[in-house]
Amino acid sequence: MEDDYYSIESILSENQKIQCTFKVDVPDMGHLDGGKTGDIKALSKVQIPLWMAYILIYSDHADFTIPPPFSARVRNALNADPRSVRLSSLVGQGGLWYGFGRMIMRLLNDVPAEELSGVLTKTFRARLPEVIDQAQHFASLQPGSGTARGDVGAAAFREGMDGTERELFQLAQDSAKKTKAWYETSERGRR
Predict the structure, then answer these.
(1) 164/99 Cα distance (integer angstroms)
(2) Tell me, what's the pLDDT at 118?
(3) H/E segment holding residue 18
């Protein structure tokens, strides 16, 4: 994911909501909480988009809690078997779990940011071979041949892939198809 201002992935990741606890009263902003009151009182918990949270947190008007997609429960599941976790269902809007994690890291202090970075990296490294393996498998299938019946686990993994993983899946699949086409048209493939 790019950190470009015009990157769709970056925009979607920054649009995820996080829970913030306000430290001060904020006049005329009650609509952020969906309430009818005009003010947000100190110690009120409000779900706000990440792009807005940056300003509030850095100006020391609010604190935030780690969002559920990065909670201890999710971390424990990822430590047990990273491939079994449906990353796409942890975050909405395209399932950009890695991108959302990178954005959250910017709000954290050194130690928690390093821990989250470790979780993201470890998860990516553990899931990448499965992404590439499945992409190559599907690239080798003939059109219309379908999948094997025992492929339930692989199908569940594909459905749970993060947006970044889906992009890598597509690149690996295209690469495998092009390699196969090249091999079949080369001297070795015609023998």
Answers:
(1) 8
(2) 95
(3) strand 17-22
